[in-house]
Design a protein that fits this description.
208 residues, alpha+beta, 2 domains, 7-stranded mixed β-sheet, 3-stranded antiparallel β-sheet, 4 helices, 19% helix
């Protein structure tokens, strides 16, 4: 006799890996320091603007605030020099970046000038330059589109080779789940699909 249980599959039907989702940019006309802008963006959006490629840059420059009357003001973005690992983005989560996107730069001629007192980055005249973080500038925040997650329950029956195996042992359950994941991925299941066991009303996972 086999063991019966249910497997939960979390399917992100509208999901593209985060790096494939375009950033949404939000211009904030508050004149504050880079650190204050970072705090504001993290509270209200995700972070100060990250720009991962020239397409992002072009979309950002088409924002109304830049296109109206050819505005050429100076705004903070999320790039800064931490004095340890050199230039990096305020948004540190690697899940938000595709290949090479964290390294994209759009410096103006002569920038960065590597002056220690100017470790924060602005856009000015459509190009990037480093400035003193204590200066007060308007700024751009970013978000990414929400991800829609759906859930599907699949009934499975397992027949262990060892009939004495305790199927309700958490270690055994995790080992079986990992084996199922590996086999499904070999058959083409995306890494974006998450699996876990469904607990039965009595608190157990498997029943004979």
């Amino acid at each position: 006799m086999g063991w019966r249980t249910h497997l939960l599959l979390f399917l992100t039907g509208l999901y593209l890996p985060s790096p494939c989702l375009p950033y949404q940019y939000h211009f904030v006309e508050k004149w504050i320091t880079w650190k204050e802008a970072q705090t504001y963006c993290r509270d209200m959006y995700i972070d100060l603007a990250t720009i991962g490629n020239i397409e992002d840059m072009n979309r950002l420059m088409k924002m109304d605030r830049f296109s109206v009357n050819n505005w050429i003001g100076t705004v903070w973005i999320g790039l800064y020099d931490d004095m340890v690992n050199s230039w990096g983005w305020s948004l540190e989560d690697s899940d938000y970046y595709g290949k090479g996107e964290a390294e994209f730069r759009h410096w103006q001629s002569g920038a960065p000038d590597n002056i220690a007192e100017q470790p924060c980055v602005v856009i000015t005249n459509g190009m990037w330059k480093n400035q003193d973080c204590k200066l007060e500038r308007s700024f751009i925040c970013c978000t990414v589109p929400p991800v829609k997650t759906t859930q599907k329950v699949v009934r499975v029956r397992l027949t262990p080779n060892d009939q004495n195996m305790d199927m309700n042992d958490p270690v055994v359950q995790e080992a079986i789940l990992q084996q199922i994941k590996n086999e499904l991925r070999e058959k083409g299941m995306s890494d974006d699909v998450k699996l876990r066991w469904k607990e039965q009303p009595d608190g157990k996972i498997f029943h004979k």
